[in-house]
User: Fold these one by one.
Assistant:
Number 1:
Amino acid sequence: MSSRRVNPMPPLPAGYQVLAEAFGDRVYARVGPDGSVECPVCGAGAPADPRADDTFVMHCSSCHTWLVVADYQPEEGWAGFAPVELLSLASTAYFLPRAWNPSGPWIARVDFAARYDNYCKERDSTCLELRLKTFRSAASVTQGPTSR
Ligand SMILES: [Zn+2]
């Protein structure tokens, strides 16, 4: 059995502007010229420090939150966080002034959780459709004429 894995290409630098305004596996916070991240919990600027494994952790002294930065791009001005990571915090709202957030700059935890839940359902059904298409095209190949 061969399973084909498609490795997503890293976003192009210009793509971050678009990516940051979209809701997905990452939600983005602004990074200032000094490298500080706009804390998605309270909105204050917070430093992001590298860890031994080349990832970054944001630690906000205003709200005392530590968060793994899933995608730290200070040159592009953005820091991506996993929605699951944000939802693991005991916060009732998040500071995420992005295009996907019509109630911005804040979004209530329940709304954020619902949005992520919808996103996962859509993504997973898309993944299922792709898997079915791949399965069907693989099946049509094996049913085709054999020329050996
Ligand atoms: Zn904070």
Number 2:
Amino acid sequence: MIPSVLPTYSRAPLRFTHGEGAWLVEADGRRFLDMGAGIAVNALGHAHPALVSALTEQAGKLWHVSNLYTIPEQEALADRLVAATFADTVFFTNSGTEACELAVKMARKYWHAKGHPEKTGIITFAGSFHGRSTAAIAAAGSPKMTDGFGPLMPGFIHVGWGDHDALHAAIDDHVGAILIEPIQGEGGIRTLPEACLKGLRTLCDEKGILLILDEVQCGMGRTGRLFAHEWAGVTPDIMMVAKGIGGGFPLGAVLATEAAAAGMTAGTHGSTYGGNPLACAVGLAVMDHLADADFLAEVRRKSALLVQWLESLVATHADVFEGVRGQGLMLGLKCLVPNTDVVAAGYDHGLITVPAADNVIRLLPPLTLTDEDIAEAAARLDRAATAASLKSKAPA
Ligand SMILES: *Cc1c(COP(=O)(O)O)cnc(C)c1O
């Protein structure tokens, strides 16, 4: 019999009842160090007092009115994002997937409004992940996500990660944009080198096409800058944001330059919930912390500390781990044993990590974790690696 919850996930048998900072408590009382943060969502950890009070204060005033009216909290959050980034304008969504939908629509509308309705093509990359809508699965193009869901939305041109020749060959008169994650999350913490992001910007400028960055996972302070593209010193035309921006409250956004957003006039897009007062009140409190130079410097310092621990784990468990990758607190350990075995061994030792493609486990902790949390994570990962190693050597 089908479970009452549609069985599209194979879930771990863990039932968390509450959390505090980087820690989660299971129904049976066990404490887990959360190095997953709900897949890079709980940027300020669990039950952060500033977020709790932002949410409860707003909850007592007004939850929702719809976008038929002016929403002061939404305007304030948009102003904050515009002030802190390349963007001139922001549309709020409830998820990363919806941000992907709008990014695609915005790029097509841009060309349509410019008198080039034929420039519908968007180049995307192998191993990417942009969400689960029909457009987003067509964009990423992996058979695992698209199989059985056809016919797929046309217009996406897939090229290999790092395949410069294929990229150049793919650009013709029908291509209007390039869409890429500065660091692939689901794809296994694959970092686009700074020189490549700069190169993509130059290429888009030369060809007069739009650069769309998907910073749903790598944005909002995750890499030690507010947005990952800042490391390369270039800016996109359109950017997708979600995950960390709501700190656990469902919130996403599309940020764009005035030029890129030129086609998006009244009536061209909408959302009932997107940017409602509750979500934006929380988003403002998140921004208060993340958009702070000292906070981001702390993320970079903690990243260096964690990477040091991880490098030494790779050295002591050379039969389990191949290497460390990623940036800031978006880190991956490439595994030599099945990554899901390491994740499962982590559960046994009170540690939460997240598997990704390419046999990688992801470490995406709350950006607020402490130095003690980092040392504890390393100790638990050490025990988990020992267990995973023993399992891999046990006779079947
Ligand atoms: C998670 C993710 C998405 C989709 O976001 P949802 O909120 O799950 O819809 C899109 N792009 C990237 C890079 C992501 O990590």
